[in-house]
Amino acid sequence: MQAAAARIVHTRWFNGLIIGLILLTAVLVGLETSVVVMSRFGDITELLNQLILAVFVLEVVLKITAVWPEPKRYFADGWNLFDFLIVVFSLMPATGEFAMVARLMRLLRVMRLISTIPELRLIVTTLIRSIPSMVHVIILMSIVFYIYAVIGFHLFHQHDPTHWRTLGLAVLTLFRIVTLEDWTDVMYTAMDWHPLAWIYFVSFVVVGTFVVVNLFIAVVLNNLDEAKQQRLREMQPPVSREDLLRELRETQASIQRLHDQLQRVRE
User: What is the number of domains present in the chain?
Assistant: First the structure.
């Protein structure tokens, strides 16, 4: 049974079936927002949801059976644990005070698409690995924001209190500027009072947008490359005993040939 379960969960058709059911779940979740659809086809959508949930439960059982008698191998994988928790919470009754929770769990089933497609798992893994490095970039960006917010408050709070009345409002204005959303309107208002205010805004856009934001991109790309390398190493098949013995014999033969050549040189 273990071998049969392992063959099923590693087949392409089974993985395609799971992806198709997740996409169908996403469609059903969207249809549930329509009062007209639910009034006409509510029973059908509920039946489909129950059937999909049954297949997801069967998937979990098959994957655990495939690694039996060591179920901890299944739970050692974070993505398997993620899928397992979603299925468990989806088994909650969809009535009474748990109705809203059950609907949210149906929505979380759509997120299983991330754990099913390897490319999406790679992207999420990259983002998670980038968090420690991003902390330092965020600290740098916070320093830049604080300095420019204090300067902007002292320069413009009297002329343009809408955007610079307090330090917190100044930070919010800088956040608007760094997104490049109508930041020129704020700059022209400030230039009515300070003609050289463009230096302040242009320098912040250069530092905040083109430098700091690109640092975030550089961190993500660097971790993406490392994640790809790690995935390639994991995909490489383990070295078997026969391979090691063959390489050892080839090494011994090479050493023997070198020894024979040295003997001929001495003669």
Answer: 2
Count the neighbouring beta carbons within 10 Å of the beta carbon of residue 198: 14
At 222, list the tokens: 């660097």
Do you find a cis peptide bond into 69, omega within 30 degrees of 0? yes
Residue 31 forms part of a structural domain: yes
Of the candidates 95, 89, 10, the one whose C-alpha atom is nearest the C-alpha of residue 57 is: 89
Give a yes or no: residue 250 inside a domain: no
* End-to-end CA, the chain: 66
Distance of CA 132 to the CA centre of its chain: 14
Domain range for 231 is: 120-235
Encode pLDDT of 197-214 as tens digits: 899 999 999 888 887 778
Among 129, 132, 142, residue whose Cα is nearest residue 227: 129
